[in-house]
Write a structure and sequence with these properties.
The complex is a heterodimer of chains A (about 170) and B (about 140).
Chain A (H helix, E strand, L loop, with lengths): L1 H18 L17 H4 L10 E4 L5 E6 L3 E7 L5 H16 L1 H4 L12 E6 H6 L2 H39 L3
Helix pairs in contact in A: 1-6, 3-6
Chain B lengths: L1 H6 L3 H23 L3 H9 L9 H16 L4 H7 L5 H14 L2 H18 L1 H9 L6
Pfam families (chain B): P16-Arc
Subcellular location (chain B): Cell projection; Cytoplasm, Cytoskeleton
Protein name (chain B): Actin-related protein 2/3 complex subunit 5
């Protein structure tokens, strides 16, 4: 079970290493503006082919690159209704604090659970390898986090129910 | 230049390409029956990408390559007999396979992707990302 995960993460890591070739590029349309081209998509010559890496039907990762920015959108595994709610709440919690993460996007791209936007400025301030390690580590840990949350919800539910029903014994 | 070369491929040329791809599929089937998956993959990758924007040709070609890819069991052995000139086009097809989301396809593509990156390096990945003209 861990092996397909490892292959998936290796594939994402290799693709990110190749795709994270960002340089500063001032906006072509408006003077003195500098915008992440992957968000605007106004000039096709500045964009590379977007790449979709699916692990299975539920989990996938979309990597879109342009000359000065890179957008990574993730869809995490959600096996049942409870995991669905937990994932949504947890990732919304993270996205609302996107300022602290710097590379996180406030709203995920349509159809995905969470998105990262990495610009050339991030690559200048931070090391490329560390950025990639962060993203891959995030992908690895998100599954564990959600399973932990699910387990704590079930445990708490069980405790509460036991305590409540004791009065009827 | 490159854009001009695409223009002359009109509807009737697309038919010719599809016939060529069907011919290729039959050859691939016979090679697979003879238990030669690497030869089948080489045949599938030859003449790719089809020099056309027609989606049907690309889909037909993808189906042929997919058939050959799924038949491969020994990934290391495959790379020892596959010429480096096929690496770039194989990488493009791997990404197409990964975008399908179908579990067995994705498993196989992920396995091959790892080995191909080890062999061909990151340049191969970047060429498949940067080539917006010859997509598969």
């Amino acid at each position: 079970m861990a092996n397909p995960l490892k292959l998936y993460l290796t594939c994402v890591r290799n693709t990110l290493e190749a795709a994270m070739c960002l340089q500063n590029f001032p906006c072509q349309e408006v003077e003195r503006h500098n915008k992440p081209e992957v968000e605007l998509k106004t000039s096709p010559e500045l964009l590379l082919n977007p790449v979709l890496i699916c692990r299975n039907e539920a989990e996938k990762c979309l990597i879109e690159t342009s000359i000065n920015s890179l957008r990574i959108s993730l869809k995490v595994k959600q096996a049942d209704e409870l995991e669905n709610i937990l994932a949504k709440k947890f990732l919304r919690f993270l996205s609302m604090r996107a300022e602290a993460f710097q590379v996180l996007r406030r709203k995920p791209v349509q159809g995905y659970d969470i998105s990262f936007l990495i610009t050339n400025y991030h690559c200048e301030e931070m090391q490329k390898q560390k950025l990639i390690d962060f993203i891959v580590q995030f992908m690895e840990d998100i599954d564990k986090e959600i399973s932990e949350l699910k387990m704590s919800v079930s445990t708490r539910g069980r405790l509460v129910a036991t305590e409540f029903l004791k009065q009827f014994l | 230049m490159m854009a001009g070369a695409e223009k002359f491929v009109e509807a009737d040329n697309a038919e010719a390409i599809i016939t060529r791809i069907e011919h290729k599929s039959r050859k691939i089937e016979s090679l697979l029956k003879q238990n030669k998956p690497v030869e089948a993959l080489k045949t599938a990758l030859e003449g790719s990408p089809p020099m056309t924007r027609d989606e049907r040709c690309k889909s037909a070609n993808w189906i042929a390559v997919h058939r050959a890819l799924m038949a491969i069991k020994d990934v290391e052995g495959m790379f020892s007999s596959l010429d480096p000139e096929y690496y770039d086009i194989l990488m493009k097809y791997l990404y197409r396979g990964l975008s399908t989301g179908d579990r067995p396809t994705c498993d196989q593509c992920l396995r091959i992707h790892e080995k191909l990156t080890e062999r061909a390096g990151l340049g191969c990945i970047l060429r498949s990302l940067a080539d917006t003209v010859n997509t598969v």
